[in-house]
Every structure is written in structure tokens, then in C-alpha cells.
Write a structure and sequence with these properties.
rod-shaped; 2 domains; mainly alpha; 8 helices; 2 strands
Length: 137
Amino acid sequence: MKQTAANADTTPKRNYINVMEILVAKEVDRQLGQLPQRVLKYVKRVEVETFALNRLPALYASSEKGWEHQCDKAQRDYRAQLTSAVRQALAAVQVDPIRLSQPLDLADESESNAILQTLRDLLQQPELSWDGLVRWV
């Protein structure tokens, strides 16, 4: 039987941790802090973290000394890769409201012109063209 999150047994108690998970979470915090508030509503943090983690090596530790060693290794060997993976994740998982919207069905030119004129009126942009609409929005 295929194992899924929904039918998985309870998670066993474990005495180890993937240090990279903590470091990715911190990097996500840092990069999210640099984004404008209007962009943050289109970002799902869990998707950013999992996207980034799937592109980075796991660095497990089961002791304090192992933790320190793996943190040092991550800083020394994977800092740039970690930063880049989170940056790519942010770009990849952002919800694009334009892409998700229903495109206009421009059946004929007169209907197209009527729609464009309605947009000009709504946006108070009398010189607006179809080409300029995307740049304006």
C-alpha cells in the first residue's frame, strides 16, 4: 500500500533533526522581511520552505556537537546555495493573480474595442491601449 501523509502511522519519536530545516526557516524569515506587504499575501511559507529544502542536502544531527558541526558545515559549504534556493522558492511559489484569472474572450474587434473602452473609463486612462494595459497594471 502506498504511504501518504493522510494514512501514515503516527510520527515516531526521534532524537535527531535536519539542521537545514532550521536554517531554511531562518533564511525564509530574512527574505520575507525584505518583501513588500502587498507581495506577502501571495506567498505560502510552507511551500517556500519545502521547495527550498527539496533543493538542498539534508544535514542531520543527533547531539549538540553534531548540531554545531552541521551548522558550521552549512555556513561554510551551503550558505550561497541556501540563499539561492530560498530566493528561487519565493519566485516559484508566489500566487500570480493575473495568471489565475479568467482571460478575456475577445470574440470580435467591436467587442474588443468595447471592453478596452470600459477599461479606459474604469481606470481613468483615456489613452490606454491593449499593449499598454499590462504595463499599466
